[in-house]
Amino acid sequence: MTIVQGIDPRGMQHCETTTLGVLLRHQGVDLSEPMLFGLGRGLSFVYWDSKSMGFPFLGGRVKPFELTRNLAGTLGLELVVRETSSARKGWANVVEAIGAGRPVGLQLDSYHLEYFTAKVHFGGHVVAMYGYDDRVARLVDTEQQGGAVTTGLGSLAEARAARGPMAARHRSFTLTAPPDLPAVHDRIVPAVTACAHAFLNPPIANLGHRGIAKSGKLVPTWLGRSDDPRRDLPQAALLMEKAGTGGALFRNLYRDFLAECGQFLDSELLRTGHRLYAEAAALWTEVAALITEAGESGEERYLVQASTALLELSRIEREAMEALSRLEG
Asked: Which domain of life is it from (predicted)?
C-alpha cells in the first residue's frame, strides 16, 4: 500500500469543497466548508434544459472546477492541473503526486465508483485520493458517501475515462499554500463582491437571479414536460436538497458563509445579505418539497405554488446580492 500520511479524511456536504478541505488541511490550512465555498465564489444559479435532456436541471453553483480555480486565485494557492487523453499518463500523474507525499484531487464520473449507491452519471464529481495498492484506491468523498472510502482501480479508471456533460480528461490537481498565505478576513470582501456582481449580471437569462425568475415561469409546465412525473419531479427535488448541495440548493452553505464572515466584518450590508439568504434557504427547501408533492400527486397546484416561491426567490436573492455587491473593506 502506497499512502500519504497525515490525512484528515473529513467528509463534508459537497464534493469539491470536501476535496479542497483534504488538500488544504494536509498543509495545515483548516477552513470550514462554508468558508471554502464562499471564498471560492461557489454560489450561482442555472436553469438548464435541452432537447437531449430527459428533464430540466436546476443548479445552484458555478460549473465544476471553477470553485477550485476561484479559491486558488483568492488565496494565492499554486494550483497545478494535469489533463490527458491517455489513461496510462493520467494514472502516472496520480502516482507521481502520491509518491511525493501529496494527496491529489480527481474529477470523474461518480456513476462508476463502487461505493456510490445512487447510480447517476455526473462527470463533474470531485474526490481526494491519498493512497492505493494493487487492487483499490483510497479516496475521501462527502460525508453522505462515507468520507474515507475505497473503490477498485478498475472502477476508478472507468470513472476517470468517462465522457459526457461536465466531464474532464483524466483531470488531476494539487494545491500548494504559500508561506505567506493571506489572512482570510482580508479576502472576504473581494470574494463576496465578485460573486454578487456575477450573480447580478448574468450573460444569459438562464443564469443568476434572471435564471431563478425564468425557472419560476417554466416550473408550472413540468408535469407535461416529463414522461414519468412520479420519477422525474421528486428526483429533481432530491438533487436540490441532497445531492451534495448542503441543502437548499447550496443556499445553506452561503448563508453560513455570510454568518462566519460576520465574525471578521462589522457591516450592515453583510447582515442584510445574511438575513436574506437565510430567508432564501428556507424558501428553496419549501420549493423542493412542493416539486416532490407535485410529482407524487400529479397535481399542478403544487407547481403553481413553487412558481410563486421561485419568483419571490429571484427578488430576495437579487436584493441580497445588491447589498453584498456594495461591501467595502
From this structure: Bacteria
Q: Read off the pLDDT of residues 82-105 as tens digits, 9 standing for 90 and up.
A: 999 999 999 999 999 999 999 999
The answer to whether domain 184-324 has CATH 3.30.1450 is no
In the chain, where are the structural domains located?
Answer: 2-30+78-176, 184-324
Q: Which residue has the cell 460549473?
A: 63
Task: Using the CB atoms, write b or e for 71-91: b if 16+ within 10 Å.
Answer: bbbbbebebebbeeeeeeebb
Q: Decide if 281 contacts 257 (C-beta within 8 A).
A: no
User: In 162-300, where does DSSP find H-type helix?
Assistant: 184-200, 208-218, 222-225, 229-241, 251-261, 268-297
pLDDT digits (tens, 9 = 90+) for 16-71: 999 999 999 999 999 999 999 999 999 999 999 877 778 898 999 999 999 999 99
- Assign 178 to helix, strand or coil: coil
